[in-house]
Amino acid sequence: MYLCLAKYMGWGRAFALAHRARICTPQPSGPTLHPLISAQLIPSAMRDKISLASGYGNFAVPAVAAEAAIRSISSGTLPVSDAAGLPALREALAQGYQRPITATQVVVTPGAKSALFALFKTLLRPQEEVLLPTPNWFGFGELITRAGGRVCPLPLSSESNYALTPAQLEAALTPQTRILLLSNPNNPTGRVYTRQEMQALLDVTRRFPELYVVSDEIYHLITFGAEPVPSLLDFEDPHERHVVVNGYSKSLALIGWGVGYLVAPAAVAAACAAWQFATSVAVPAPNQLAALAATQAASAIAAELLAQLQPTRARMLAELAALPHVPHGQPEGTYYAFPDFRAYLTPHLPAAAAAAELVASFQEAGVQVVDGSSCGPPGFVRLSYAVPEETLREAMHRIALVLQARQLASDLGC
Ligand SMILES: Cc1ncc(COP(=O)(O)O)c(C=O)c1O
């Protein structure tokens, strides 16, 4: 331990710290030496803020999309979009799926969040249940409850790489379950559900003809596996109950442009479009034309994002591997890692409080992360590697120091 500390702070300070630590008074609430140690370990120069918490990457706007938007703005009169979106964009999106989809099934929305909310408002009757395998994106819960539904978490285990077996799914479905909600690739774990896994789950859901299956595929092109991420729309939909939500702010780098969409059976799509007409606005035409250009150039844009992410992904995985007692798996998709820091939680605190305290100690060292409790499991943390490599290196260095400080405090019983 002192060897590690000495590496960062020198032997003299490490021994002085150890000596000071030894004379501290043990506190019933846990290792309250942490602030003292972290104050010693983390120089004030390191306290400027770095965020690995953002859900949005550091990607440049694709030139083809920017040019399309500029052209439309410069052309004088903007086209007035239908509430459900410009026909050309709806058509292009429909054409992008393997199975036959028509433009009437596509609704363009102000971001994926709006697509989800329109969908939940349309499908959920009061207090109906949405089965949500967890960990999952923290935004789903609020969207569901604000739409009048209830979230039923289905906890999955990191030990099995978040596998969702048909038996687990079947046991969790009840007559009150209206929607099964998946995200693939999963935010925050980066887990990609394969074609075989999806098929096995859909073999279960087909036995529940009233159940809707909703797949949020907003990270679908950000995958480092050998196979493309399967879309729910690649599979047979025996009861017309499959819905996909997607958007442009992740895989296609249109961050802040507010373009998302849903693809649903025609009647559901029409009801969602009616909701949007009544409560919101069509996405502005320049943004839709930018999205159309991005759709047409999707493979090239995604290839560029993946090339940009490769080095930071490799660095993130290497840095995590160097942290003792932090299992982290190999996330295949998204630009997140979801490591397990449970070994560093303060004992005797309730799990959520201990997780919040850990996250606060990272924050104190100037690193913002997402507390895994917001996605399901306390003690895990979501870290984005869609940041410059130097920023990531510095953030992981600080995290390592905080863990060393916590380990030292724990070893010393303070
Ligand atoms: C899984 C998932 N769905 C939807 C959204 C919202 O996307 P948008 O920015 O298009 O509203 C996010 C944003 O973080 C997300 O992670």
TrEMBL record:
GO terms for molecular function: pyridoxal phosphate binding; transaminase activity. Residues 48-399 form the Aminotransferase class I/classII large domain. InterPro entries: Aminotransferase_I/II_large (IPR004839), AspAT/PAT-like (IPR050596), PyrdxlP-dep_Trfase (IPR015424), PyrdxlP-dep_Trfase_major (IPR015421), PyrdxlP-dep_Trfase_small (IPR015422). One of its GO terms (biological process) is amino acid metabolic process. Its cofactor is pyridoxal 5'-phosphate. Belongs to the class-I pyridoxal-phosphate-dependent aminotransferase family. This is Pyridoxal phosphate-dependent aminotransferase. It comes from Hymenobacter fodinae.
